[in-house]
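Intended use. Records like the one below are meant for learning the mapping from a protein sequence to its folded structure. Do not use them to infer anything beyond what is encoded.
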Amino acid sequence: MSAEIMEETDPALEEEAWSVEDASLALVEMTLNAMTRSSELSVTQLRVLLAVDRHGPVNLSGLAALLGMSVSATGRLVARLHTAGLLTRLLSPHSRREVSIDVTENGRRSLERIRAARRGHIAAALRHLPPDTRRTLARTLRELTAAAGAHEADG
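Structure written out for the chain above:
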């Protein structure tokens, strides 16, 4: 955390941030468990596939920027996922020098298997909460997701 962010944070907000971070780590662990049981993809390959699914079709430099990776490293990952039948690489309709990357039907099925397994892990944890708490948590997480999107849009 940068010093600028720390100065703006009061102790209660800091404690709440720790709680959300702890919960997010549990969700990441559930995602990784689902991934290892439902897929042959590496974490980095899954990250690429998820980014293209969420933001695609996208060109290679745009994907590299989304991932914070070099264009060459991103290109190698895209090539592997294309060979595996999970991504398409097509000439962009806007420029013959630009390649448009998108998720194939196989890629979408692979992501859905992982997502279904992850939802199963999450549902198992949610069963330990009272129904009112589950509903409140779901509503609050939707609000947090929207706030995170607004924060990203702010730069």
